[in-house]
Amino acid sequence: MKAVVAVVFLLGLSLMVGMWSFLFKDPHNQAMAGLVLVLISLVLVRRKVER
């Protein structure tokens, strides 16, 4: 269970780094992408914990 959460967390981090490097020109888009990815990761973690 912890391994799955760790993998999802690492994938989220890699996606955040990729999106930040891609949207680095616009700080607003950068912040929005980070917030959306954090919310998605929280929802995934909650679903994993409920099971």
Q: Could you list some keywords that capture this structure?
A:
mainly alpha, single chain, 51 residues
Describe the structure.
The chain is mainly α and 51 residues long. It has one domain. It has helices at 2-22, 27-50. The chain is elongated. The mean pLDDT is 77.
Mean pLDDT, all residues: 77
Major sheet description: none
Helix content: over 70%
Question: How many domains?
Answer: 1
Strand content: under 5%
| Structural class based on helices, strands and sheet pairing | mainly alpha
Which parts are unreliable, with pLDDT below 50 for 5 consecutive residues or more?
none
Radius of gyration: 12 Å
Total beta-strand segments: 0
Q: Order of helices and strands, N to C?
A: HH
The span between the termini is 10 Å
Q: Which assembly state applies to the chains in this document?
A: single chain
Shape type: elongated
Q: What is the helix tally? A: 2
Write a concise synopsis of the structure shown.
The protein has one domain.
Secondary-structure map with pairings?
Elements: H1 2-22, H2 27-50
Helix pairs in contact: 1-2
